[in-house]
Amino acid sequence: MADTSPNDNRIGLLIWKISNLWQSKIRFLLKEYDLTVNEYLILETLFKIQMTNNNISQQDICKNSSIDRAVVSLKITKLEKKNLILKIDPIDKRSDSLQLTNEGKSLISGIINSIENEEQLIFEKLGNEIFNFTNSLKLLLGKKIRIRAK
Description:
The chain is mostly helical and 150 residues long.
């Protein structure tokens, strides 16, 4: 596809456009479950961390989901009201420990594949470059990358 706009080569705008595309597709899927993108990401993060750790704090959710602390706090309250998350007596008394309820586990395990399939449809156009693209985004975020041996 030929460049049709002076902004088609502005990488920041291209990242913004793809982010908007991704969010739009994910919001459409989540609408059926009455979840926002942030609520989904919190549930997914909790689901994945819970596989190896049973004492998960809001700070753990923030760190692993990259969602602002105030947003996580607000959304956890909403997810509690939806009976998807439960606060339990923590091992460390300084912060609550979070767990998915059975309803939360069932919901998130049913949604994850749909979300991953939608992401695959969006990014499959990258073909063999998906690994390099992912590493490039990580570099921009200041993260460490893996180099694939040939």
